[in-house]
User: Fold this.
Amino acid sequence: MGGELTVEDMGYDPFFEAGRHKLGLGGFPVARVVSASRGAYKVKNAEGEYLAKMTGRQMFTANSREDYPAVGDWVAIEDLGNGQAVIRGLLPRRTVIKRKHGDKNRSGEKKDVQVIAANVDVAFVVESVDRDYSLNRFERYLAIARDGGVRPAIVLNKTDLLSQEELKDKLSELTSRFPGVDIVPTSTVSDAGLDALRRYILNGKTYGFLGSSGVGKSSLINRLLGGDAIKTGDISSYSGRGKHVTTMRQMYFIRGGSTPLTVKGIVIDNPGMREVGMAEAGRGVDASFGSVAELARGCKYRDCTHTHEPGCKVIAAVRSGKLDEGKYSNYIRLKEEAAYDEMGDIEKREKDRAFGKFVKKAKKDIKNIGRKD
Assistant:
């Protein structure tokens, strides 16, 4: 496979070259991380693919999981021969998509922020019309993408299950809720929208597919690749949920530029995510709720929380019907979640303790209702 691709085909440009020299890594060749699993990385450049690992020193000096390579990252490598390499440095990221884990590790501590993909130009947020379609979930993904500097686009999949009138209503709903966001309706059954999706993808640009399991991300990528590179599974007849066939993040190169061997875009498939925790995404929330942010600028108080304050333009817009109540509720929820994630550990403990006292008092008040003195 060596020699077929240049690093420029794979998305390398002056931004990453400048980062390489700034880190003093100019003497090492670069490669892009195409998959990652348990500390082992598959990286690719013009010479071929390598199985690569970090040095012990890099792992020792890493402050968090964010300092480890992720799919889409550019790294400087040393070729050890026989398809083996060692990673000598991680180049600065232009963009990053990350989420907060709600789970805990074996020691009971909360996991680090997880980098889903790096150096993505466009995030395709995929939902299908037959499953847990949710405008709120779209907003959550859009906020995460925008916070990392990634332009989001919506892919509404499995549209063959809708009538033309139903599809028109769905698209109208999405356009109203997400003005300015590109929306691509698709179906791998009827082929609807696939040409539009192909035209969307540009040479040398990277596209990440995000969404729950079973929405059809891998099937869409297979159609873009023109084969069955990714194994896909059916929806469980028992739970109605997609089977988790994609188990790790993987980068693929779409062929078919000016020649059959050239690349027309790069795509990243991601395992389905049932929970999408906010990771320091305050800026992304504001960007995703531009109409709410515009209203907020007219509030009486600069630090207005838009929940109870007099003179709040956001609350007034909800009461008058100018602002959709569902959109408002999701905005408040995501802002609170992002703010909580940005707190220090001490602040979080104090907030949790105060909330615990509130719940305890509320339960006591409820129990005393109706009792005589």
In short: The radius of gyration is 23 Å.
